[in-house]
C-alpha cells in the first residue's frame, strides 16, 4: 500500500460519521438483510414444497412472531431498522455523499427519504408485534393506497404516476445490478478478494431479483389505473404469487427466491463495508 492510499484512508476515517451513527446504521442494513433473507427462504420453500409462503416484509414479521424466540427477534428487528432509517434520513437531508441538488440528485435524495418512511412503518409494525399491541400492518396496504388514490381528483392519473415511479425504482435496481454500480458503495480497500467477489455476486443477482419484483408491483399499479380497479394492486407477496402462477412459475419463483436470499446477504455485507463518510469524494480512493 503506497503513501497516497494511506493518506486517503486516513482522510476517509476522519470524515466518517460519528461512531454510534455508523454502528447503528450498519446494524440497520444487516437487519434489512435478515428480513429479505427470510422472504427469500419462505418463497424458496413455497417453490420447492408446500411449507413455504409468498409474502412481503409485513408478512415475514408475522412468520417470525410464530417461531420460538420470535418476540426477541422482532424487538431486535424493530430496533435495528431504526439504524437504517436514521442513516437514510441523513443521506436525504445532509447529503454526505454529495449527490447534489440537481434533478437526479434530488430524486435520489427523495428516494432515500421515502425508503426511510417505508421502513419506519415496518419497524413500528415489528415493535407492535413484539409488544403484543397490534399486528405488523395490512398485507393489502398497496390495495388500500390505490383505493385512497382513486378516490382523489385525477385519481387514475395519480395511481398511474405512482406505478411509473415504482417501475423506475425497479429498473434502476436492475440497471445497478447488471452494471454493478452498487460496488461504489463499498469500502473495497478494506475487503479481500473473496469478500469483493461475494459482494459483487450477491449484489448483482440480488438487485436484479428485487428490481424484477419491484417493477412487477409498479406494473400492477399501472394496471389498476388502466382498469380503475383497486383489486389489481399487489405488493411484494402478490408479485411473488403472480410469478408463481406463470408458465414455469415454480422455476421462476425459485430463481427470484434465491436472488432475494442473496440480496439479504448483500445487505449484510453492505452493513459491514458501506462507505459512511462526510465530505470527501469517492475519487480520492484508489480502486482495488
Automatic annotation (TrEMBL):
Keywords: Membrane, Transmembrane, Transmembrane helix. Residues 27-94, 111-179, 205-273 form the DUF1206 domain. InterPro entries: DUF1206. The chain crosses the membrane at residues 27-48, 72-92, 112-134, 154-175, 207-226, 251-270. Signal peptide: none annotated. This is DUF1206 domain-containing protein. The lineage of its organism: Bacteria, Bacillati, Bacillota, Bacilli, Bacillales.
Amino acid at each position: 500500500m503506497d503513501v497516497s492510499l494511506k493518506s486517503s484512508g486516513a482522510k476517509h476515517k476522519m470524515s466518517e460519521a460519528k461512531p454510534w451513527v455508523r454502528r447503528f446504521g450498519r446494524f440497520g442494513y444487516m437487519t434489512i438483510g435478515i428480513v429479505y433473507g427470510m422472504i427469500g427462504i419462505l418463497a424458496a420453500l413455497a417453490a420447492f414444497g408446500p411449507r413455504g409462503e409468498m409474502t412481503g416484509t409485513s408478512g415475514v414479521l408475522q412468520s417470525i412472531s410464530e417461531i420460538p424466540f420470535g418476540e426477541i427477534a422482532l424487538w431486535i428487528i424493530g430496533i435495528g431498522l431504526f439504524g437504517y432509517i436514521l442513516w437514510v434520513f441523513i443521506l436525504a437531508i445532509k447529503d454526505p455523499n454529495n449527490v447534489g441538488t440537481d434533478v437526479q440528485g434530488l430524486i435520489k435524495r427523495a428516494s432515500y427519504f421515502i425508503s426511510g418512511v417505508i421502513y419506519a412503518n415496518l419497524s413500528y409494525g415489528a415493535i407492535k408485534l413484539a409488544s403484543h399491541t397490534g399486528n405488523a400492518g395490512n398485507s393489502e396496504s398497496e390495495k388500500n393506497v390505490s383505493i385512497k388514490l382513486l378516490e382523489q381528483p385525477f385519481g387514475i392519473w395519480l395511481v398511474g404516476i405512482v406505478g411509473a415511479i415504482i417501475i423506475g425504482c425497479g429498473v434502476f435496481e436492475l440497471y445497478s445490478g447488471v452494471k454493478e454500480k452498487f460496488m461504489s458503495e463499498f469500502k473495497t480497500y478494506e475487503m479481500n478478494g473473496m469478500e469483493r467477489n461475494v459482494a459483487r455476486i450477491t449484489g448483482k443477482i440480488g438487485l436484479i431479483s428485487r428490481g424484477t419484483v419491484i417493477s412487477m408491483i409498479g406494473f400492477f399499479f399501472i394496471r389498476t389505473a388502466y382498469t380503475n380497479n383497486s383489486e389489481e394492486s399487489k405488493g411484494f407477496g402478490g408479485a411473488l404469487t403472480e410469478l408463481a402462477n406463470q408458465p414455469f412459475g415454480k422455476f421462476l419463483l425459485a430463481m427470484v427466491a434465491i436472488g432475494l436470499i442473496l440480496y439479504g446477504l448483500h445487505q449484510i455485507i453492505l452493513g459491514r463495508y458501506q462507505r459512511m463518510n462526510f465530505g470527501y469524494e469517492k475519487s480520492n480512493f484508489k480502486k482495488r
